[in-house]
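Pantothenate kinase (Streptomyces minutiscleroticus), 329 aa
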Amino acid sequence: MISPVPSLPRSAHRSRPEATPYVDLTRAEWSALRDKTPLPLTAEEVERLRGLGDVIDLDEVRDVYLPLSRLLNLYVGATDGLRGALNTFLGEKGSQSGTPFVIGVAGSVAVGKSTVARLLQALLARWPEHPRVELVTTDGFLLPMKELQARGLVSRKGFPESYDRRALTRFVADIKAGKDEVTAPVYSHLIYDIVPGERLVVRRPDILIVEGLNVLQPALPGKDGRTRVGLADYFDFSVYVDAKEEDIQRWYLNRFRKLRQTAFQNPSSYFQKYTRVSEEEALDYARTTWRTINKPNLLENVAPTRGRATLILRKGPDHKVQRLSLRKL
């Protein structure tokens, strides 16, 4: 008689690790992966790259962003190798020259994604294999204020529908296709609007970094119901900068305080009116903006795209990265 296979106790089932497409690493484990990559930035350069209210120093660059620059350098090399294999397969009928490696950087307002993007640009440009690294923010593809007002979208600024998504996707598609010169609109945080007649020119970079709230959003179906190609479909690698909602809100309010003391003082600033009221009145406006615009956008549109990223940087309350999740291949 064959003995039945004993069933595992419930505790054994509970202890079984949950399947995940990511490798989770502590900061120390990640830092060790930088190998012998030298630190090419000085403290002064890091200070210039740091966003207002963001807390970052050479230790953070050494522990978090140097390993990331090394990983991205490996990815770029592997992509070149894969392109060579494809050219061998296609032969003379369809061989292609090198096209830019595209990186997406996503995350909430005030989480520090702009600093991450600038650091990556500075670090990646130091590698001899890809010295031309361009950075473009999706702010330039926000609809002009007049258009937002006409569509009743002023209170939805930053939501996916407030962008010219078709133009943004076409811009990245043209760069990925290897066009010699591609231009984008320019956004000014001073006037809180697109700058009329001004264009950013991008000429065949080795690497393009695209930073913005909604860069990992999947494409919306067309009117005919067919799935379209989305912005993220052109990314070779993507980073999501993550933190707890309460920490992001605190960082947002702290940044607003500092802006009120600095950039908002400019007579041309759209927000100068908040320097002429009490700090509490100004902060009431900031809290309302967070509650009615930034928080809903984070919960409805930004955070749900986190699982589409290649790498997730998880920040603690002090703005420092504590853990990282890297997507398996």
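The first strand starts at residue 22 and ends at 26. Residues 31 and 63 are 4 Å apart (CA to CA). ok done for today
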